[in-house]
Amino acid sequence: MSSSNKSRIHAFLIASAMALSVGVVHAEDMKGRIQSIDKSARSFTIASEVIYVTDKTDYENDYERFEDLREGHYVEVDIDRRDGRLYADDIEFKKSKQ
Asked: How far is the C-alpha of 96 from the C-alpha of 29, rounded, in Å?
C-alpha cells in the first residue's frame, strides 16, 4: 500500500471518529449525600459536584419536586454533562446507602 493511500485511510478514520462523537450526550449515574442546596440556582451538590435541575427533571420515591430535596439525603441521580455543567435527568431518594 502506498504512503498516499495510508494517509487517506488515516484521514478518513480520524474524520469518521470525529463525526461519530458530534452531538453525543454523556449520561451517567451519581450516588451520594446532598451536601448543599442552592434554591435560587435550582442546584444541589453531591461529592463537590454541582448538579442543576430543569423543568424536565423527573423525581422518584419520596420526591415530587426540587423543593423536596434536603441536605443529608442519600440520592441516586441520572445526569447529563452539557455545556460544562451537570444536569439532573432523574433524582431518586434512597432510604439508605445501598
From this structure: 17
Residue labelled with grid coordinates 419536586: 65
- Taking the C-alpha atoms of 8, 13, 17 and 19 in order, what is their torsion angle to the nearest 10 degrees? 40
H or E segment at 57?
A: none
Q: How far apart are CA 29 and CA 76, in angstroms?
A: 7
Across-strand partners of 43?
38, 52
**Is the whole-model pTM more than 0.85?**
no
Structural domains of the chain, with CATH? 26-94 (2.40.50.320)
Predicted pLDDT of residue 24: 47
Instruction: Indicate the pairing of strand 26-38 with strand 74-82.
Output: antiparallel
